[in-house]
Structure formats: C-alpha cells, structure tokens
Design a protein that fits this description.
This is Tick transposon. The N and C termini lie far apart (75 Å). The chain is built from six helices and no strands. The model has no long low-confidence stretch (mean pLDDT 72). Helices cover 40% and strands 0% of the residues. The protein is mainly alpha-helical and 149 residues long.
Length: 149
C-alpha cells in the first residue's frame, strides 16, 4: 500500500497505523478490505461482513445462521419495506391465524377470546370501570373463561 496516496481510505489506514506506532513493542496490523457480500475469499481468512450478514438473516428468521452460506441458500427475500414489516408483525404473533372456514364473526370472537380479557379479569384489574365480574347475559357466576365457554 502506498501511504502517500491522498484518498480517504489511505488517510484512515494511516491514522490506524499511527495510533499503534507509539506502542512499546512492534505488532503486526492487518487491515482487510472486502467488497460487501463478496463471500469468503479463502478458507483461512473469514469475511466478518458475511458473518454479520448471516447473523442478521437468522435474527429475522429468513435463513439459518451459518458463517458460510452456500450459493443456493443466499436468497435475500426481504427487499422492501413491506417484507420487513410483515416479518416483524409475524414474529410478534402469539397465535396462528383463525381457520379459513370460520365466518368473519366467528374469527373476531375467537380473536377476542384469545386476547384473554374476561369480565372477571377486567374487574380484577380495573374495578372502578368494571364494577362486577359477572357476565351481562346471565349475571349468576363469575365470568372467567371456563364459564364463558
């Protein structure tokens, strides 16, 4: 490398070398410049950019976290805003989608039941707003999920 080069990369490399030039002992400094997503150049030198890329893909459940993805596993499917928002929305999902054969009203009722607010629970948490733990239909027993079903 020519240290006389006046480019931005050469200046940053020179600053790193100057930082360690005053050390009490001499140590080797190796600076690796690798093109983004270029893959691993050799078996002995890891490309840490690819390692970080694999970890990010595993975090979003798009691919297994491998340091060395093969060519057929390298499909990046998340390319636009819609893909990212769908991935995060599905990752936060607690329950599967309602069955497609359910009517809209049944699916809504199932979702409301899955969110777990019952009159008994709401009375326990917000007794000022929900003065009773009975259902408004029967008003006999405590309206927990067993009673509602």
């Amino acid at each position: 490398m020519n240290p006389e080069y006046k480019g931005r990369r050469a200046a940053s490399v020179r600053a790193i070398i100057d930082l360690h030039a005053n050390d009490a002992y001499v140590r080797k400094i190796r600076i690796k410049w690798i093109l983004a997503h270029a893959g691993d150049a050799s078996e002995s030198n890891d490309n840490h950019n690819e390692t970080a890329h694999a970890a990010a893909r595993a975090l979003t459940n798009h691919a297994p976290a491998t340091d060395h993805p093969t060519w057929f596993e390298a499909n990046d499917r998340m390319t636009d805003y819609n893909d990212f928002t769908n991935a995060y929305r599905l990752a936060r999902r607690n329950s599967p989608f309602p069955h497609p054969r359910l009517a809209r009203a049944e699916a809504v009722l199932l979702r409301q039941f899955q969110t777990l607010p019952s009159p008994a629970l709401m009375h326990r948490m917000y007794s000022e707003i929900y003065p009773t733990d009975k259902r408004k239909f029967c008003r006999r027993e405590t309206a927990d999920h067993t009673h509602i079903l």
